[in-house]
Amino acid sequence: MTPLAPHITAFLRQRLPVERAASPHTCDAYAYAFRLLLTFASHQLGVRPSALQLEHLEAPLVLAFLADLQTERGNGARTRNARLTAIKSFMHFVEHRVPGALEQIQRVLAIPIQKTDRRLVDHLTAAECQPLLDAPDPTTRTGIRDRTMLYLCVTAGLRVSELVGLRLGDVTFSARYVDLHVRGKGRRERRLTLWKAVADAVRAWLAVRGEAPVPELFLNARGREMTRAGFAYVLRKHAATARAQCPALRGKRISPHVLRHTCALNVLQATGDIRQVALWLGHESIQTTEDYLRVDVTQRIGVLTSVTPPQLRPGKFRPPDALIASLSA
């Protein structure tokens, strides 16, 4: 039997952060996936997590874990696939360290990724977005901070990790505009230049931000850096206020990624160029950005105005005489 704990530790502390230079977010996501897996395996096998062996991670156990994610935890196919990716990455790491378990590892690696539906992305219209931006109170320090964060999400299309990761040195002002140095997903960096109105909102927050022991741009109520959970709370609070003012929002889900989708569609409608959207959002592949083409109404209107459909032969339907029809029946 092969103890599992040393290999998990080496994978999370050496393989990911050192050898593969994975981002802290990736390391955290993988660690959380294994916390769920080992907790599930411990309950199933009646063994303490620290006493689990590599041989316990057979394909049937992994399949049962993935099914439990969807049935008991209510996770979707995308979350299930993310957890499976973490497990497979670990198995690739172990196959060179424990050659005797190669057959078991290959059975786990053979578990297929579950297909997912490609649904239309949720977004807000201009009329729906305005009540959300108006929800924070601009006469208070917290309201100025919240309004600036929401404004950056809608205009810059930032992910939550990108928003809370902004530092004071990442913000520079150029004449009437503001430049943001964004550290995106997969260590991809980009620079965005935003409008005067956005620059004014950022200046308003900097004027009341005050001194803090952390370099992050946005602070929480304790003067520390804003977290993803903290921004999620801020968004939920102001979304509830916006729904009370705008009935159209009451049936809509408002999440940080919905604000990102809203920005993407605004850029697409303004430029008509999907490559500009990919650069604005920091997408690695333009295939990810193509989802917005299925939502943008202006793209379909452009097709209607530029393409002439084939014509049908004219004619009118005349029902048969009632007497003849009854005789035919």
Description:
The protein is mainly α. It folds into two domains: 5-109; 126-302, Intergrase catalytic core (hpI Integrase, Chain A, Orthogonal Bundle), CATH 1.10.443. 56% of the residues lie in helices and 5% in strands. The protein has 15 helices and three strands. It has helices spanning 5-19, 24-45, 59-71, 77-94, 102-109, 126-134, 141-156, 160-165, 196-209, 228-245, 256-271, 274-281, 286-289, 297-306, 322-328, and strands at residues 171-174, 177-183, 189-194. A three-stranded antiparallel sheet has the order 1-2-3. Strand 1 (171-174) and strand 2 (177-183) form a beta hairpin. The termini are far apart.
The proportion of residues forming helix, as a percent range, comes to 55-70%
| CATH topology type of the largest domain | hpI Integrase, Chain A
How many distinct domains? 2
Q: Would you count the extended β strands for me?
A: 3
Could you spell the SSE succession in H and E letters?
HHHHHHHHEEEHHHHHHH
**C-alpha end-to-end distance:** 80 Å
Strand content: 5-15%
The main pleated sheet reads as: 3 strands, antiparallel
Tally of individual helices: 15
User: How are strands sequenced across the largest beta sheet?
Assistant: 1-2-3
Mean pLDDT: 88
What's the CATH architecture of the largest domain?
A: Orthogonal Bundle
Helix/strand class: mainly alpha
The low-confidence runs, each spanning 5 or more residues with pLDDT under 50, are: none
